[in-house]
Amino acid sequence: MTAVADSVRVPARQRGAAFWLHGFGSMLRWEMTRLRLLLPITALVQTFTGAGLVLGIGLFFEEMAPRIALYLASGAVVISLVTVGLVMGPQLVAQQRQEGSYDFIVSMPVPRSASLAAWLVLNSVVALPGIVGAVLVAIWRYDAAFHVSIVIVPATLLTLVAGVMMGHAYAHSVPEPLMVGLISQVLIFVIFGFSPISYPVENLPDWLGTLHRYLPFMHMGNVVRDGLTDGLVSDVGFSYGVLSAWTLAATLVAVVVAKRRG
Amino acid sequence: MDDWVFRVDELTKSYGDDAPLANDGITLQIRPGEVYGLLGPNGAGKSTLVKQVIGLLEPTKGSITIGPYDLVADPDHARQLCSYLPQAQMPIASFKVREAIEIAGSIRGGGGADVKRRTNELIEALDLGEWRDTLGAKLSGGVKRLVGFAMTSVWPGKLVILDEPTNDVDPLRRRMLWAEIRRLGEAGTAVLLVTHNVLEAEKSVDRLAIINEGRLIAEGTSSSLKATDSGSLRLQVMLAPGTETPALPEFVRFEGRVGHNLVSAITESDASAGIAWAQRLMAEGLAEEYALGATTLEDAYIRLTGHVSEEL
């Protein structure tokens, strides 16, 4: 029997755990190959961004209080965690729409949850160097006293998942590539400049501080800081609540978009 | 034996009350082993039809099935049963040719060893060996197109949808591509070929449908569609640059003009009068050359759609 004859034998409707795992593995391979040129560079840039953010902002001060270094380092960790999922991923989706390959990607017979899971794994791998870079630089340069506790695991995971799900939600629900690009630019601007991730919320005007109580970014900072430090974060339960709500909402949007047909 | 006929029945797609129907009651069938051409000018509703098959669009009315399976009700299953080569190039800049085909086969559900065997078979059949380990970014458009075809047909399922598969492909490899499309058919897959290249479709498909403004306006074999034109000849005149379309004698039926190319039809009995007319145009400096030949599917296409295909 030739290979082509084998290839057209279609078994019954595929579903279940084995099918999901096969799809997950194949998509992981697809994504890693697709981004093989981009990922190492991204990881490197993330490391420099993480370390650079801590070092660079430190240059503004003659003497940096260890407390500020802790803020900066944990902020850099958050930025490492969400950059790919919230900004780069959507830009890649917009690019696929523009070049016309989007339809091919979504016509592949892989459960959406399996390809999302593959994307999530990839995100965590790329985020790792940035996290390590930021923390190491803060310790080396400013004697930052980290108190790493086990809650850093759920904190980083939740932050990562929140970023990936929110990015996925807007990337796939906004059909216009230019609009997706614009949203990602605005997000960079808001996250880097106007979110109390790398500094305390008290530094912002009251109204903006109040707004951030309901946005996810400050809470990403809070949960990560809670896992890395001692005594800087209060009411972390509220932060977990808000962040979980955003993640859930984004997941619902992702599910609706995946099921939606024009 | 399973019934794997692909059936589209009364398929209707509306994008809104004010817009004209993108698909209007389209009914067609493709049997396993059949290569079926879907022809039509841009905006005729070809892509809308395809996107409903693979579950990217939801039909307003009508059904799409493969054998006993309802593709509209279960778009996930539709994607398992159908593979799709879009008109755009595949996103394989950072894939080696072999990897792109193998990973696509794995994603489409094939097992490791089977997919490897099939990948090698395709690389050989399409003469892609010298690029086996070349990155997609370094491939020419035509070779990339062939790799896209291989990614679609490595583990094809029961229906392969090919949207302009021969774009950019050189004539020699075009023949290999058509041979491979034939082999898919022989192995039992139905092939839906979307194109506006009428002449190529005429040579390569078993049956075809012409759609225009959302409606299927003709269906059959290429000879049955040309039957109305039997007894006719095609008279093509290459006008001199800058020449207006000249007045046509009564026995010459105007079909269309693409650039300097004037296409018309005459009955066989008027052949010598047609030649005399064309030679007169050349003598007057209005035309540079002419050709008289048998009618092709193109003539039926022009008659039915009012459009001239771009590859004339």
If you had to describe this structure to a student in words, what would you say it looks like?
The complex is a heterodimer of chains A (262) and B (312). Chain A has 262 residues and is mainly alpha-helical. Chain A has one domain (18-259). Chain A contains 11 helices and no strands. In chain A, helix 4 crosses helix 10 and helix 10 (216-228) crosses helix 11 (236-259). Chain A is elongated, with a radius of gyration of 20 Å. Chain B folds into 2 domains: 6-225, Rossmann fold (3-Layer(aba) Sandwich); 231-294, 2-Layer Sandwich (Alpha-Beta Plaits). Chain B contains 10 helices and 14 strands. Chain B is globular and about 65 Å long. The mean pLDDT of chain B is 89. The interface between A and B is large, with 38 and 52 residues.
Q: Beta-strand level of the residues of chain A, as a percent range? A: under 5%
Percent helix of chain A:
over 70%
User: What top-tier CATH class of the largest domain in chain B fits best?
Assistant: Alpha Beta
Listing every helix as H and every strand as E from the N terminus to the C terminus, the arrangement of chain B reads: EEEHEEHEHHHEHEHEEHEEEHEH
Q: What is the first-to-last residue Cα distance of chain B?
A: 43 Å
Q: What is the number of beta strands of chain A?
A: 0
Low-confidence stretches of chain B: none
Helical content of chain B (DSSP H or I, runs of 4+)? 25-40%
Structural class of chain A: mainly alpha
Largest sheet of chain A: none
Order of helices and strands of chain A: HHHHHHHHHHH
> Which word captures the global form of chain A?
elongated
Number of domains of chain A: 1
Radius of gyration of chain A: 20 Å
CATH architecture of the largest domain in chain B: 3-Layer(aba) Sandwich
The major beta sheet of chain B can be summarized as:
6 strands, mixed
Number of domains of chain B: 2
Largest interface: A-B, 38 and 52 residues
Q: What's the number of helices of chain B?
A: 10
